């Protein structure tokens, strides 16, 4: 593996981590939005606070990691992406800021109306942010980001591939979150809440699978390079995603929620990895390869050194943080 490919793989590890951990984080806000009024939805919202409260800020470490690696390692493609996809980037960033503000402020609201307002901001932002991040991925994957500086602000991210990417991002986030929340509720002995989350997991998992299956036809016409890669060298990942997704649905149906958490992560990971393998070696599909868009050799070596330091200095504390969050008890009543 060349240094350039190693940097690209390191950056993609960040994308995968953000898709899993950030995805489950965003998805929990989606279920917060649909939990019902203050009385009916109280147990779900308590569970969401318990699940993401200690870690929701830490999950954005992965997004910062991705942006830094893209900017430093591939400055030309970074400039093209940011210029072409400025609107969805701004909307996704706004969603992240509003989401964090809403989540923090609703805990310290002076009355129920304020809590509802901040809760709506938190939950709705959890929906729009993964959607716009998905449209960004779809725009790049369909070859709509041009290296020569030409761009169209709207049609570049409102194509069929982008819209499929946005909807699929929302549904996979919802699926991951529902599975994680169901397993957490079961561990806490919250039987009714676990059943509520399990039902949503089955629904969102089924919808995600249906979208993935029906996306082939529009991708073939709108993103032929991506389609060819998915139907070629990425086919094992597509098969793994289907098998893992089916296993997750069966485990959910049989109420084996902790095991379902593992298979759901495997299914989503395979989807993300399949996208990366199908798109390789392009960083801007049909425009710029990783090799052509890379920065100076010294910069790439420095990024790899930084990645190694991050593995040693950042990953263990994050694992410990998630372990502490998983052990944190919030009570045994719903």
Brief digest:
The protein is mainly α and 334 residues long. The chain is built from 15 helices and two strands. 47% of the residues are buried.
Q: Work out the strand percent.
A: under 5%
Distance, first to last CA: 52 Å
Q: N-to-C SSE series?
A: HHHHHHHHHHHHEEHHH
The major sheet is characterized as: 2 strands, antiparallel
Mean pLDDT: 89
Tally of strands: 2
Unreliable spans are 329-333
CA radius of gyration is 20 Å
**Principal-axis shape:** globular
How would you classify the helix and strand content by structural class?
mainly alpha
Helix percentage range: over 70%
Trace the largest sheet across and list its strands: 1-2
Q: Quickly count the helices.
A: 15
What does the model show?
With 334 residues, the chain is mostly helical. It has helices spanning 3-33, 42-52, 61-73, 75-84, 86-105, 112-141, 160-188, 191-214, 216-222, 224-230, 235-253, 257-279, 290-293, 297-313, 315-327, and strands spanning 282-284, 288-289. Strand 1 and strand 2 (288-289) form a beta hairpin. The longest helix is centred in the N-terminal third of the chain and has 31 residues, at 3-33. 47% of the residues are buried.
Topology:
Blueprint: H1 3-33, H2 42-52, H3 61-73, H4 75-84, H5 86-105, H6 112-141, H7 160-188, H8 191-214, H9 216-222, H10 224-230, H11 235-253, H12 257-279, E1 282-284, E2 288-289, H13 290-293, H14 297-313, H15 315-327
Antiparallel strand pairs: 1-2
């Amino acid at each position: 593996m060349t240094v350039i490919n190693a940097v690209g793989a390191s950056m993609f590890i960040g994308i995968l981590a953000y898709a899993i951990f950030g995805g489950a984080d965003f998805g929990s806000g989606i279920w917060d939005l649909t939990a019902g009024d203050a009385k009916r939805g109280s147990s779900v919202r308590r569970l969401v606070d318990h699940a993401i409260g200690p870690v929701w800020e830490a999950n954005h470490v992965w997004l910062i990691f991705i942006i830094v690696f893209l900017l430093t390692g591939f400055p030309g493609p970074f400039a093209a992406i940011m210029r072409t996809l400025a609107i969805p980037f701004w909307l996704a960033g706004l969603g992240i800021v509003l989401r964090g503000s809403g989540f923090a402020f609703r805990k310290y609201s002076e009355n129920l109306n304020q809590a509802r307002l901040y809760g709506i901001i938190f939950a709705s932002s959890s929906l729009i942010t993964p959607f716009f991040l998905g449209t960004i991925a779809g725009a790049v994957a369909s070859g709509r980001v041009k290296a020569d500086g030409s761009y169209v602000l709207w049609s570049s991210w409102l194509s069929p591939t982008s819209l499929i990417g946005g909807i699929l991002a929302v549904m996979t986030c919802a699926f991951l979150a529902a599975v994680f929340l169901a397993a957490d509720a079961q561990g806490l002995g919250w039987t009714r809440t676990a059943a509520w989350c399990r039902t949503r997991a089955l629904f969102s998992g089924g919808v995600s699978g249906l979208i993935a299956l029906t996306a082939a036809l529009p991708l073939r016409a709108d993103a032929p390079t991506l389609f060819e890669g998915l139907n070629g060298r990425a086919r094992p990942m597509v098969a793994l995603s289907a098998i893992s997704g089916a296993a997750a649905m069966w485990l959910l149906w049989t109420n084996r929620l902790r095991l379902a958490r593992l298979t759901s992560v495997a299914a989503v990971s395979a989807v993300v990895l399949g996208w990366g393998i199908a798109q390789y070696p392009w960083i801007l599909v049909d425009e710029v390869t990783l090799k052509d868009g890379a920065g100076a050799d010294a910069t790439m070596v420095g990024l790899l050194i930084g990645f190694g330091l991050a593995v040693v200095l950042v990953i263990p504390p994050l694992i410990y943080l998630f372990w502490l969050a998983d052990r944190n008890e919030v009570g045994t009543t719903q």
